[in-house]
Amino acid sequence: MKPSSLTWLSFLSGATVMASEMAASRLVAPYFGSSTPVWAALISLVLGGLALGAHLGGRWADRAERLEPLRMALCVAALLLAALPFLARALLPGATTAVMTGRPLEAMGRVALVVLVAVPPLLALGAVGPFLLRVGLGGVASAGAHAGRLSSASTMGSIAGTLLAAFVVLPWLGTARAMACFAGLLGLTAAHGLGWRWRVMAVGVPVVALAFGIHALPRHPRALEVAESPHAFVQVLESPEGTRSLVFDEGFAVQSTWLPGQPVREEVFAHYLLTPAMARAEPRAPRVLLLGLGAGTSARGLR
């Protein structure tokens, strides 16, 4: 295999790892939030999977001495990464409910099932480095240069995957479609040279996930509308009393509430509703000091 192909695969694996990690943080936010403990658990899972994959992959590479087994493993990884948001949609809402109702074992079981699906792709991606080093090594004299080239490509791929996911793909496509996009690119590269069945599996499943990614959005039973903004998962919930709330992620962050018949609520975010009345009370825009501009709603209303 050409050195440039090995370098590209190393670059792509690094990009996929970091892009998937960025997407996974958005994937769990509607259920567990995005606090520091959540990030710590997510990073530990990713690093642990990569470390174990590198350890096992090194032994596997010495026995295989060719790249096809790694390609097959990466095809399976692409399939599982594309399916992960849909599995999370099916299992994680029940996990949060189980936690809130005092059923920790059920919650742990549901989370464990999601983790079991997430670990094999991490193992395969962790095995990329040892495999590429073993297959592409031309001799001891060039071992340092070869290892340095692969490590550099993987690191640059990680940077590219992080920036692309955070600033382009996630805001543009959303979490499920972003994971499907990177999974499809990984599958397309890994399936090169394999049979058509591997290509269908590695590329077809991510394409289907890309088409139906909107259905991976979680939905609260009382949700009137759900959406994924560039910054958070958003829902409009309606209580049995008729109060509507705009909530972010797992639902503990309430941006605003509205109750029919009561235009102004006694809350910190309700002051912007007074803006039209303030603007009509003065022939010109009043002098107002805004502490915390937020989205600029009040400022635009007073112009």
List the helices and strands and how they pair.
Elements: H1 3-32, H2 36-64, H3 68-100, H4 104-126, H5 128-136, H6 143-173, H7 175-190, H8 196-211, E1 223-228, E2 233-238, E3 244-248, E4 253-258, H9 275-281, H10 297-302
Antiparallel strand pairs: 1-2, 2-3, 3-4
Question: What does this protein look like?
Answer:
The protein is of the alpha+beta class. It has helices at 3-32, 36-64, 68-100, 104-126, 128-136, 143-173, 175-190, 196-211, 275-281, 297-302, and strands at 223-228, 233-238, 244-248, 253-258. Strands 1-2-3-4 form a 4-stranded antiparallel β-sheet, with helices on one face. It starts with a helix and ends with a helix. The model has no long low-confidence stretch (mean pLDDT 81).
Q: Can you give me a brief rundown of this structure?
A:
By secondary structure, this protein is α+β, with helices and mostly antiparallel strands. The chain has helices spanning 3-32, 36-64, 68-100, 104-126, 128-136, 143-173, 175-190, 196-211, 275-281, 297-302, and strands at residues 223-228, 233-238, 244-248, 253-258. The protein has two domains: 3-215, Growth Hormone, Chain: A (Up-down Bundle); 223-302, no CATH class.
